[in-house]
Amino acid sequence: MSRPMRCTFFLAGEDLEALSRIDPGRDWRELQTGERAWILQTYLRLRDAGHPVELSGTAPEDGLVVFHAKQAKELYRQRSRLRDAFLVGVRADNREPLLADVEILQNGFFADGRRRFFLPHWPQPGLVPRDPERGARIERIAYKGFAANLHADFRTPAWTGFLAAEGIEWVVDAVAFAGRNRLELEWPDFRTVDLAVAVRPDERKQRHSKPATKLVNAWLAGAPALLGPELAFRELRRTELDYLEVASVAEAREAVLRLRRDPGLYQAMVENGRERGAGYTPEALVPRWAELLFATIPALAERRSLRRVPFALKMAGRWLARTASLRPAR
């Protein structure tokens, strides 16, 4: 290509002038919604790395338009402006945005390298690692996330009573999802977290849509993780040093006792996490985004004529293809 394709990040209904001035590490509370975490944060990180990107709440006429699935309806309302644009939809936890010419996914379940591309979610902005002076002690275990994403069994005496008997503090750094409201949580702070726990409720639909962010955060924080049986975690797992998989409170209890009995295993998991996490820092992910947005997808867009097909026909064709293949919506 003679010149890079214009790349616009679409974020409607926001004060973009104010948001464009935030720093992800410092202002992490501004990045708690999916739209901001994926669209605003990616724009900011690519811009700060010197890449030619734009942020707009108005659909551009041409180039790549990167949008979150939750804003597909708003983008569709502005479709008359999208005369020669190629639409890049970030699916996140949502249904497939039929408006998108290509998709970015947060795990590899539906990725095919042709129209659906996997890119890891950004790690927790502003993350503060565990204090290494704590050594291999296990005195504080934490769950960090939305309340609905913690299995109910981890709120029962079978778990809390066990931890109390072992002299371990159980920290649930969680609230109900609050949409665009700022949440007063301490998600980035792992200074006194000795183990991270994340086991979701038994809902199959979540297992195919979620990212591996809690694993990556644990790696970067230097806190070994006990994680549920999820696709995204298993995709990244090489050995048990990456994390210990637990599907129940009983398995979680055994994992805690095992790590207390074997401080060498604990320390090996910390060191392994440091090595694995290096591949998922913002500095490591920016080049992956740049390769996809400025090389892979533009080359694909140049080969396709879909940009000239009416939106209604494109969306109908994709819906029929999905239905015919019996492919699930997520």
Name the features:
Rossmann fold, 5-stranded parallel beta sheet, 2 domains, 11 helices, single chain, 330 residues, 6-stranded parallel beta sheet, alpha/beta
Structure, briefly:
With 330 residues, this protein is of the alpha/beta class.
Q: Which range does the strand content fall in?
A: 5-15%
Low-confidence stretches: none
What is the CA–CA distance across the termini? Answer: 34 Å
The major pleated sheet works out as: 6 strands, parallel
User: Shape from CA axes?
Assistant: elongated
State the share of residues found in helices, binned by percent: 25-40%
| Number of separate helices | 11
Order of helices and strands: EHHEEHEEEEHEEHHEHEHHHH
Q: Please identify the structural class as seen in this structure.
A: alpha/beta
Report the radius of gyration as a whole number of Å.
21 Å
How many domains comprise the coordinates?
Answer: 2
- For the secondary structure, the number of strands is 11
Mean pLDDT, as a whole number?
90
Biggest sheet strand order reads: 2-1-3-4-5-6
Describe the structure.
This protein has 330 residues and is an alpha/beta fold. It folds into two domains: 7-123 and 282-324, no CATH class; 132-280, Rossmann fold (3-Layer(aba) Sandwich). Helices cover 35% and strands 14% of the residues. It contains eleven helices and eleven strands. Strand 10 (225-227), helix 7 (231-236) and strand 11 (244-245) form a beta-alpha-beta unit. Helix 4 (157-165) runs parallel beside helix 8 (249-261) and helix 6 packs across helix 9 (263-277).
